Amino acid sequence: MSIEEKLNNDIENIDTLKNEEINKDEYIAKLNDDLIVQKKKADEYFEHLKRNMADFDNFKKRIVKEKDNLHFTITSDVVEAVLPILDNFESAIMSECSDDKFKNGILMIYTQLKETLEKFGLKEIVSLGEEFDPNLHEAVMHIEDENFKERQIVEVLRKGYKISDKVIRHAMVKVAN
C-alpha cells in the first residue's frame, strides 16, 4: 500500500470515527503501533544499506589493490625477460671492437634500454664489496682469501636487480670465506 493510499485510508477512518463515535485513543494507539512497525522496517533498510555501502567500499579497495599487484607482476615479468638482453649488451660493450661507430651504437642502445627499464623502477643490486645477503645474492663460488672479510662479495658474476623492494633477479656472486 502506497503512502497516499494509506493517508486516504486514514482520512476515511477518521471520518468513520466521527460517524461511529469510536474511541479516538484506540485509533491513535493503532497509528502509533503502525508507526513503530514502519520505523523498525526503515531502521532495517538503513542498516542493510550501511552494510552494502561498507561491502562496496571494501570491494573497491580490494580491486585497487589487485590492480596494483597485477601491474607490478606484469612489469616484473617483462623486466625479468629483458634482463638477459641487457646482459648481452654489457658483454658486447666489454668486448674488443675495432669499429668505434658500431661500438658507440651498441652503447647508445644499451643506455637507452637501461634508462627505459629504470623508468619502470628497475635498480641494480649493489654487491661488490658488500656482505653476502641470501635475500639479494646467489653465491656460486667461494674463495679462501685473508685479504677480504668473511662473507664479503669479491666478484659479481651476474648483476642482480630489484624493483621497489622485490628482487627480480638475484646477483650471482663469488664470496670470501
Strands of the biggest beta sheet: in what spatial order? 1-4-5
Q: What's the CATH topology name of the domain at 123-177?
A: Nucleotide Exchange Factor Grpe, Chain A, domain 2
State the total count of DSSP E strands. Answer: 6
Proportion of helical residues: 55-70%
> What portion of the residues fall into strands of 2 or more residues?
15-25%
**Derived structural class:** alpha+beta
With helices defined by DSSP (H or I, 4 residues minimum), what is the helix count?
3
Radius of gyration of CA atoms, rounded to a whole number: 38 Å
Proper CATH architecture of the domain at 123-177: Roll
Shape: elongated
**CATH homology superfamily name of the domain at 123-177:** Head domain of nucleotide exchange factor GrpE
Report the CATH C-level class of the domain at 123-177: Mainly Beta
Mean pLDDT rating: 89
The main β sheet shows up as: 3 strands, antiparallel
Series of H and E elements: HHHEEEEEE
Distance between the termini: 87 Å
Low-confidence stretches: none
Descriptive report:
The protein is α+β, with helices and mostly antiparallel strands and 177 residues long. The chain has a domain at 123-177: Head domain of nucleotide exchange factor GrpE (Nucleotide Exchange Factor Grpe, Chain A, domain 2), CATH 2.30.22.10. It is 62% helix and 18% strand. It has helices at 3-20, 24-94, 100-119; strands at 122-125, 137-143, 153-158, 160-163, 166-169, 171-176.
